[in-house]
Design goal:
Arc Repressor Mutant, subunit A; 63% helix; globular; 2 strands; mainly alpha
């Protein structure tokens, strides 16, 4: 939901690429969110084989409620670090994220 809340109209493949989830995990999450009426999908206008995902009004309401809380918690947690410590943490997390993507099995 967080990815779709920030960028609507992605395919499941694009969601998987933007997260640390594989395609099977994304597919299961989408199905669950669709059953809960939080996400909807429709065929891409130029390629009917591709399904585009977006939040439903119910999903958007949840997203709009949760994001400010998450950002507040993040800021509260990070407030324990000085500015240079935050930059170092971000750099290290980026490096670990890149390494994790190299280790992740690629499913086609």
């Amino acid at each position: 939901m967080a990815v779709l809340g920030g960028t609507s109209g992605l395919s499941a493949r694009e969601v998987a690429e933007r997260t640390a989830m594989d395609k099977v995990q994304v597919s299961r999450a989408i199905e669950s969110l669709m059953r809960a009426r939080r996400v909807q999908r429709e065929a891409d206008a130029s390629d009917g084989r591709v399904m585009r995902l977006s939040l439903t009004p119910k999903g958007r309401a949840i997203y709009d409620e949760v994001v400010p809380l998450a950002l507040h918690l993040e800021e509260t947690l990070l407030s324990a670090l000085a500015r240079d410590e935050r930059r170092t943490l971000e750099m290290l997390l980026d490096r670990l994220s890149r390494q994790a993507r190299l280790l992740a099995p690629r499913s086609q």
